[in-house]
Structure formats: C-alpha cells, structure tokens
C-alpha cells in the first residue's frame, strides 16, 4: 500500500487539495501574525468551498487532516516541507511535530488523530510548565487553545522526545510492513494486540466451557445422582430439588460453574463490541460477576468448615447448620446482592465509559482483594482446627489429608489473587504505569487465576466413590431405558398383528 493510497483511503478531499493551490508552507509556517482561526477558515473556504463547518471540532479535524496531508502525501512541496521541519520545527509554529522514528525504525506513517484527546497528558504537563503563557483552563476540544498549545510546543525542540520518554502515545502509527494501525510499530502492534483481541478470547472462552463441563461431569452430576437416589423415592421431586439446592457442597460447585459460564460472556463482549471503553465497561461487569460467584463458592465452603468444627467441638452429630453459620451465610449473600446492585447503579448512572471502567475496576479489585484475604485467614484457622480434631483420635500425617492439601492450595491461590488485584487497582488508578502488557492482559490473568480456583475446589469436592456410583447408576438407567424401548416396540408390533 503506497502512502498516497493510504491517505486517499482516509479522506477523499486529498485529491481536491493536490489539485488546488494550497500551500503547506504558507499555512503551517506563516508567522505574519494572522489569526490562526481566520487563517484556517480562509484556507478551508478557498479549498473546500464556502459551506465548510467552522465549529471547534470540525476545525480541529480539518487542521489535523491538513497536518497529515502535508507531511505524508505526495504533493509538490512535500520534500522541502519535511526538510524545513527536520531542520527547525519552530519555523512552522502551527505544525504539531513528531520525531521521525516515533512509530519505529522501519518504514512507518505517523498520524495525528482527528480529535486531540491523545494529547491530554501533554497539555496537562505544558500547563504546569508555563501557566502564565497557556493559562490554566486550556482545553483539547477548543481550536484556539489547540493552536496556542501547538505554537508553545513548537518553541520546544525536545517536546516530541518528552512525549516518548513519558510513554505518551499521542499519535496513531500505520506500520507498512504489517499493514496495521497501532500506538507504535513493535511486537505489540504486530502480534500481541491482535492476539489479545482476535485469538485470546476464543482460547479463554473455550477453556471456560471445558472447565465448566469438567466440573459438571466429575463433581456436580455425582452429587446430583447421590441425592436423587437417596431422597427422590422417599421425599418426592419437589423436596428433593429443594434439599439438593440447599446442600452446601452442591451450592459451592454450582456457584463456581455459574461464575465460569458468566465469565465466558466477557470474551463474547470483547469480540462483538468494537468500542474500546464500551467493551471494557461490559467486560469489567461480567468479570466482576464471575469474581462474585467465585467468592460465594468459597464462602459457602468456609461456612461448611465452620459448621463441621463447631459440631465436632460440641459433640453434635448433625448436618444442619448452626445458627452462627446461618447468620454468616445470610450476611454473605446480602453482601453479594448489595455488590451486584452497586454495580448496576454505577453502570446505569455514570455516562462516561472511561469513568465507569475506572470505578468498577477499583471497587471490584479492592473489595475482592479484602474478601479473598479473609478467606485465606478463615480456611487456615478452621483447617488447622479440623486437623486438631482429627489428630486427637488418629496419628495420620497432615499432608495425607485431602482437606489439608486443599487448604494449602486454596490459601496460596487466594494470596496470589489478592496481590494481583492490588496490581489491577494500581494499573487502574495510574493508567499505564506497569506497562502495556499488564494493561492488555490484567483482567485475563484474573480469569485464569479463577480457573485455577475452580480446579482447586473441584479437587476438594470430587468424591471417587460417588463418581463411580453415578457412572454405574447412569449406565444401568440407559440399559433399562433401552430395554423398555425394545419392549414397547415389540408390544406395538404385536398389537398391529405383525
């Protein structure tokens, strides 16, 4: 793709500019004191017609379009114009200059976007450096302010290098080798960013479906069959369903499965929503809901452990929850409902996508880091107390007990997850402080940690005897159904006289 072909794709007015008498030197390098707004309006009206839009946003768009045209397109004075900028950019005070190799050492095209939102950080820095000249109310949405900032910037030959050093990617780069747009022409643009948004969502979505299927087959179905065999014939279908869903082990695995499936929606959102902050907003909500269900799953298990220890200490052989455990469980569910309502309210009332993502990320990260730290403490305390109860009647080693292995794995994963949520909070508050890689994959790493959590909880709840019994029962059920179908078919054939 040639430079001219690319520019023609961006704006059809290029042909009109090439055929007109428009002078880049006169427009960007004139220092005769003429008003920049009047200069631009006059140029636009002379080149594009008298009906051109003169609002701030339209003027900024056209101004940046002319900037990109003059620097990249094959017009008559392109070479001399570029040489003038490279020798002394202050000769052209209305031109927002950039380093020649800003986008990368290979052949690239550096484009200033239609709006100036990308230069917000530079504007804030400039106002701090020279508030007397620029004032304190400079806006990137006001054309006159943008011109004033551009003129101030042209007097600083180090302005562009300062942007790069501070990680302010104020331009859009077109990488001719890979034919992709990006912040810079590097491995992120050519591989990591396309991988993150085009390939990785399918990988994560597929892994979540597989993980949910694994938990259903190896953990939930054996629990379901066990309860069905035990309660269905004696208590009836309705009471069986009610008791089955209220069982803490069943609730724990169901919460984890539901969370894993809901989390799959964030990958679908990534694929179908093109708007970065719109997609981020929905992605954050679904990831937050997945975290909530994961927390409910482990919270339910912790309540089960508390109940077991209390019953053992009180010498009570009953499966019903103590009043203390019921209160803890109800409070956990109230907190979950409150969190979901808070997410919905913030999502509904806040208009700006960036702010929504910021609020949700910070709120979710902080609360979940605290919650899983509490889980770490709770499972450690009650796991130790459970072992003391067992060791009082047996000399079994702790590492041979399944719940001790679960406790150690769960606490390790909880602490890693809590630390990573702190990283999420820091990255959300500071922007790009921890690097682009963290920005790209920060929430995905949270999802992978929760996938590890699902296998940890599956390890604890998997019962080999119940699994084999369920396989046998389902096999016999299929055989019985097949025999019944054969008998029915034989009966129908007999009745028809065959």
UniProtKB/TrEMBL annotation:
Query: Highest taxon of the source?
Result: Eukaryota
Instruction: Give the record's keywords alphabetically.
Output: Membrane, Transmembrane, Transmembrane helix
- Residues spanning the membrane: 202-225, 252-273, 285-306, 327-349, 355-382, 403-423, 435-462
Q: Does the keyword Transmembrane helix apply?
A: yes
Q: What is this protein called?
A: Uncharacterized protein
* Protein source organism: Acrasis kona
